[in-house]
Amino acid sequence: MKIFKLLWLFCLPGLCYAQQKDSLDTSAVKQHSLISSGIDYKPKVTSFIIPAVFIGYGLVSLTNFQPVKQLDKSTKDELQEDHPLFAAHADNYLQFAPAVAVYALNLAGIKGKHTLIDATGLYVLSEAIMGGTVTSLKKITRRQRPDESAYDSFPSGHTANAFAAAEFLNQEYKDVSPWIGYAGYTVATATGVLRLYNNRHWVSDVVAGAGFGILSTKVAYYVYPKLKRLILGKNALSYNVMPSYQQHSFGLSFNGTF
After folding, report:
1. The domain containing residue 160 runs over which residues?
2. 87 lies in a domain?
3. Distance from the first to the final alpha carbon of the chain
4. Are 106 and 243 within 8 A, CB to CB?
5. Are the C-beta atoms of 212 and 134 separated by less than 8 Å?
6. Phi and psi dihedrals of 202, rounded to 5?
7. SS3 64
């Protein structure tokens, strides 16, 4: 079907994005936090190409560029014709699944790149950047949703949240297994697909949302260590927090040094 070709073209490239390697010396830090060790995250410029293309495509849809507008409309019409009564709201939960996976993997004893506290800080910062950007654009653009329910369609917040979480999962576990990142992007793509099937967004909303989500997490990983040093100073506390399970109860083990 046409819709699957479109989603492969505009959403699934996020899976390819998960394969890109950033310029980090991972050999010395696989079992330790980069941030707690004071090592900055230095992404390659090329790692921003895909989110930039996604965002650019979405912004073009706000102009009078007819090919993009026609693609939005024809996709919406086709989906509504084939699935007029479709109503599945799993996207409300799937958008958080990749982030939840980070904590689940830690609970299972599979360590990510950073400590649980730093990972949480990174995710919160990513969500703040993404949320602020998406909310502002919704208010500025006032694009009408395809179901005509509101004027806050661009970009897709669910999709942005899902891809921000997917990039978070990818960053934390790509050195453990790239397939973990691929799984996260698959879930994020499914979220975007459901937004289209539920007639809540145009294709360009979903594509732009994916771009903003990925970019927000990238920026968070770059900014967080600098922000942490600014707040805590150079002699920041080095710590580690790990989930634990003892005597039929869950808990957290904490250790740290100045």
Report:
1. 51-240
2. yes
3. 59
4. yes
5. yes
6. -85, 160
7. coil
Q: How many domains does the chain have?
A: 1
> Would 45 be classed as within a structural domain?
no
Rounded-to-integer distance, Cα 192 and Cα 11, Å: 8
Backbone angles phi, psi at 145, to 5 degrees: -70, 155
Q: Does residue 208 lie in a domain region?
A: yes
Query: What are the phi and psi torsion angles at 12 (to 5°)?
Result: -65, -20
pTM of this structure: 0.81
**pLDDT digits over 46-92, tens only?**
889 999 999 999 999 999 999 999 999 999 999 999 998 898 999 99
**CATH number reported for the structural domain that contains residue 114 in this entry:** 1.20.144
Give the integer Cα–Cα distance in Å for 172 and 101.
Answer: 11
Record the tokens describing residue 167, joined without a space.
């990039």
C-alpha of 132 from chain center: 14
Locate 103 and state its tokens. 């904590």
Token pair, residue 39, equals 């090592």
30 within a domain of the structure (yes/no): no
238 beta partners: 257
Q: What is the pLDDT of residues 178-233, one digit of tens each?
A: 999 999 999 999 999 999 999 999 999 999 999 999 999 999 999 999 999 888 87
Residue with tokens 């950007």: 133
Tell me the C-alpha distance between 53 and 132, whole Å: 20
* 29 vs 124: CA distance, rounded Å: 23
